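Students often ask why we bother encoding 3D structure as a string. The short answer is that it lets us treat folding as translation between two languages. Here is a chain of 195 residues written in the first language.
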Amino acid sequence: MRVMIQTAALMLALPLGAEELRGPEFFESIADQNERSAALFTEMGAVLTHPRCLNCHPVTGGPTQGDDMRPHSPPVIRGEADFGAAAMNCNTCHSADNVEFASAPGSIPGHEPWMLAPASMGWQGLTLGEICEQIKDPERNGGKTLEALWEHNAHDGLVGWGWHPGEGREPAPGSQELFGQLTRAWIDTGAICPE
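And here it is in the second language, the structure alphabet:
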């Protein structure tokens, strides 16, 4: 499946498949820097709106799971500090590594720490433009500057898990390295949000 976005410079086909994510060099032909910046963020959106990210960025309640983003089973709630309720913290089931099922296909995802994104960073159901504005806003992004956001996208291990999600899950498009490059290029062109 591909989504189309119109810019004044050209029509861009945006990939949504796990194997596809275009690097910053693809967008160099867009002369207008603001348009190029918005196009770069739209490309980042193939990652940000993928189930690997969305499952842990709910707007309300607890996480979703799987490529179909079904409600988490067993039912869990956010709890304090985004680690789940006191009697059922995320690490009750999620360890430091992905754990394959012994008798069936699939796995339990894992990373240290395993947690939900802060409630202020919930974006299930938001438009890409709304996600962009939220990500840029230090009052809603955990106090991150754009440089801290780049560091998070490019190097944070929990973000990187999205490309190594364990058996039974489609990885996010591209790679964390490429996602970091797109984030850097987006910031360097003005961090403009798509409409």
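Translate back mentally: DSSP finds six helices and eight strands in the chain. Keep this in mind for the problem set.
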